[in-house]
Amino acid sequence: MNRVRVLLADDHRGTAEALKSLLARDFELVAVVEDGLALVEAAKELRPDVIVADVSMPRLDGVSALAMLKKENPHVKVVFITMFAEPEFARCVLEAGAHGFVVKHSVWSELVPAILSALDGKTFVSASLAGIAGIETPRE
Amino acid sequence: MAKRLASFSFLVLLALPLKVGAEPRQVLLLHSFDREFAPFDAFTGNFRTELSKNSPVPINFYEVSLQLAPSAENPPKGPVLDYMHALLANRRLDLVVPIGGPAVKFAQKNREKLFPATPMMLASVDQRLVDTTALRPNDAVVTVLSDPLLMVDTILQLLPKTTNVFVVTGSSQLEDFWRDENAREFQKRFKGRLTFVWSNELSFEEILKRGASLPPNSVIYYHLLAVDAKGVSHDQARVLHDLHAVANAPIFGIQGYQMGQGIVGGPLLAIDTLSRDTAGVALRIMDGESPEHLRPAPQPPGPQIFDWRELQHWGIREDRLPPNSIMQFRDLTVWERYKWHIVSALSVCLLEALLILALIANLSKRRRAERSLSESTNRLGAILGTAAEGILTFNDRGIIESVNAAAENTFGYTAGEMPGRNVSMVLCVPFDAVRGQCFRETSGRRKDGSMFPIDLAISEVDLADRRIFTGFVRDITERKQAEQMQREFGKQLLQAQEAERSRLARELHDDITQRLALLAMNADRLDSEADLIEQRKSIRGIRDSLKVLSEDVHSLAYKLHPALLERLGLAAALKAECDRLSRQESISVEGKFDGLPADIAQEARLCLFRVAQEALRNVARHAHARAVQVSLCSLDGGLQLRIADNGAGFDRGEERQQPSLGLASMRERVRLLEGRLDIESKPGHGTTILAWIPVNAHDPTETTNRENDESADTNRNHAVAFAAKANS
């Protein structure tokens, strides 16, 4: 069976290293980039199934990059990891077309379920935000 | 001798037939002496006039002057009687009038021979001289009754010291009669008291001589001098005149006509009255009345009359005059003569003096008023001249009437250029707007056309007949500049603060929270890899603590600078704030953020967000509210934020005295953007905060904006309004 191909974008080296080991266990990590523009280019080239991206990145932030990613590949699933634990922000991001909104301090336990949920065509929001902003969180 | 001769003349005077168409009456007048002889001349003249005037028919007067010699016992009958017979032969006489004592005596004596059937009227004769026994039925009598005693009594009353009386009289038969008559009466009454000297044996010259050298306490009693001792007839007026010229004693006469000719006066016989009464009797005779019934009582002397000049001359005191005396020829004093002239002149003078006094008083009052006015004007002028504010007055048509030096300087005009021109030349407000009381900031225009900000205060002044306006003008260019600088400085301070906060927030967010998140991640990984349950518990404890720490740091960073504001715009940030309040404080928060312009300047966005943040923080901390409404909308070229709660409210008065730091900061932020902040609150009735700011859309830092999709006119000023209120 083909492994799910994941592209990771995070400008924070430490986080990126930690996430590489986490993602490598279940998915094929096609690349790790450190800014928004690199993400857009890599996605265009590598055509991953899922993109895990930090919201705050140099050159082009994740939310801005989302529209471009969607335009290039409408089927790509994007899961954002972020330090902004803001429900309003989460809603805006999901409305813009993202499939997941995971706050970084829960990423170890929630990122893989979020990716799986996205592959299922569902949306995922960190448990700490679920219910606050009227966002449905699919059950595991 | 001539003395002894009785001479006569016969005169016929034909009166002009005045009354035409009737048979004239024929009246014969018999004169005692010459017809010019006083007093009979006066009597005859009056009598003729009265008779002619009152008679219904013309009267022809025939006059015969007997000119009787003084001592003729009987007039020479022959020639006179013959002549008269001839005269009367062919004439029918209506009335014969003998005048005076001698004529009466002659007529009575010769009546039978001359005019036995003709009515006769005895006239101008003293009662004493009429032979009453010879009166016939055809005779009327009109007499006088002289009163020599009364005269002498009067003399004694006036001059009580009188001892000698020089009686001037002549030597004719008539005068003899009277001398005898008077002497007898005087002797009887004044014997021992007065000495009477008679002049009948003196010539006129001797009489004058005697009259000029009378002893003291003498008077002259002038009776009549018809013919003197030398047989010379005299004119009575002339006699009196000459005697008066030389006399050294006062002269008393008995006839009224003598008044004014030198006599002192007294009870005088009134010729006028006598002649009028006599003419009346004559008319009645000619009318057919019986003459014997026409014999009225003798006429006594008239009232006491005196010549004031004689009294003065002889030193006779007026208080000695009998009561009811009549004073004639009074030499009027200047006062008496010119009394009314003097009174008038004095009145005019007085009036003029009063007028002059009034004018002087008025003038002095006016001078004082003028001086006072001048001082006042000078003082006012000095005040106006040195006043720092420009002051101008103008009328209700806007025409400038006066300006002070400061106003001219302010507007750049030279002295005298502004009066007469319209106030709109220098004040950039419609004239209607400056009528009436007002105080406002507006613009002024200098002579060179440049505009500048001014404070303008207008007040109305009601003068007596019109209304004017005074304007106080202050150039506030420097103040405005200072305010602008202060605002700029404040803005820069705020921006610096915000930038610092933003940097700190980013630092915390991008570094600290990232590292905490990594630690949490590692803890999760350790947890999943650990074998022992105890180890896993410890690791989870560490991980949970890290999560809480991370959230706290995130929250701190957000408070320092709301990253959402830049990421998602004002509406989203406000919504997030509303959600947070609702979540944390269990307050119902209703937010309305529709219809906002597309691009809102960053400083306006931040200002409104901070105001909302502060207002909501106050609601959470102090209001104990159950519900809050937050709305943001476009209004008046700006944005208005409204936050209304239904909480406890507070006392605005206390707040003004001790403003809270939060409200003060809100106010300052709004003021720096030239907006308004209004707070409505009452204890128990919630709080409403209204913040309005004009918004400049051109802000290069505004790149992302998702507030709404409406396109806005970017050339328009945008405003943000923010209000927080608690509904009751």
Explained architecture:
The complex is a heterodimer of chains A (140) and B (728). Chain A is an alpha/beta fold and 140 residues long. In chain A, 41% of the residues lie in helices and 20% in strands. The model of chain A has no long low-confidence stretch (mean pLDDT 84). Chain B has a 6-stranded mixed beta sheet. In chain B, strands 19, 20, 21, 22, 23 and 24 form a 6-stranded mixed beta sheet that branches. A 5-stranded antiparallel beta sheet of chain B has the order 15-14-18-17-16. In chain B, helix 17 (570-585) runs parallel beside helix 18 and helix 18 (602-623) runs antiparallel to helix 20 (661-672). With 728 residues, chain B is α/β, with parallel strands linked by helices. The radius of gyration of chain B is 72 Å and the shape is rod-shaped. The A-B interface holds A 12, 14-15, 18-19, 21-22, 56, 61, 63-64, 83-89, 92, 103-109, 128, 132-133 and B 509-510, 513-518, 520-525, 528, 546-547, 550-551, 554, 558, 563-564, 567-568, 572, 575-576, 579, 583, 704, 706.
Features:
heterodimer, A: alpha/beta, six-stranded parallel sheet, 20% strand, globular, B: alpha/beta, six-stranded mixed sheet, 20 helices, 24 strands, disordered N terminus
User: What count of helical segments of chain B does DSSP give?
Assistant: 20
Query: In this structure, how is the largest beta sheet of chain B organized?
Result: 6 strands, mixed
- N-to-C terminal Cα separation of chain B, in Å? 163 Å
Binned strand content of chain A = 15-25%
In short:
The complex is a heterodimer of chains A (140) and B (728). With 140 residues, chain A is of the alpha/beta class.
Topology:
The complex is a heterodimer of chains A (140) and B (728).
Chain A: E1 5-9, H1 13-26, E2 28-33, H2 36-46, E3 50-54, H3 62-72, E4 77-82, H4 87-95, E5 100-103, H5 107-119, E6 124-125
Parallel strand pairs in A: 1-2, 1-3, 3-4, 4-5, 5-6
Helix pairs in contact in A: 2-3
Chain B: E1 9-13, E2 25-31, H1 40-54, E3 59-65, H2 77-89, E4 95-99, H3 101-114, E5 120-126, E6 139-144, H4 148-158, E7 164-169, H5 173-190, E8 195-198, H6 204-212, E9 218-224, H7 236-246, E10 251-252, E11 265-267, H8 271-286, E12 304-307, H9 308-314, E13 326-328, H10 334-337, H11 339-386, E14 390-395, E15 400-403, H12 405-411, H13 431-434, E16 438-445, E17 451-462, E18 467-475, H14 477-529, H15 533-560, H16 563-568, H17 570-585, E19 588-592, H18 602-623, E20 627-635, E21 638-645, H19 652-657, H20 661-672, E22 676-681, E23 687-696, E24 717-726
Parallel strand pairs in B: 2-3, 2-4, 4-5, 5-6, 7-8, 7-9, 9-10, 12-13, 19-20, 21-24
Antiparallel strand pairs in B: 1-3, 11-12, 14-15, 14-18, 16-17, 17-18, 20-21, 20-24, 22-23, 23-24
Helix pairs in contact in B: 1-8, 6-7, 14-15, 14-20, 17-18, 18-20
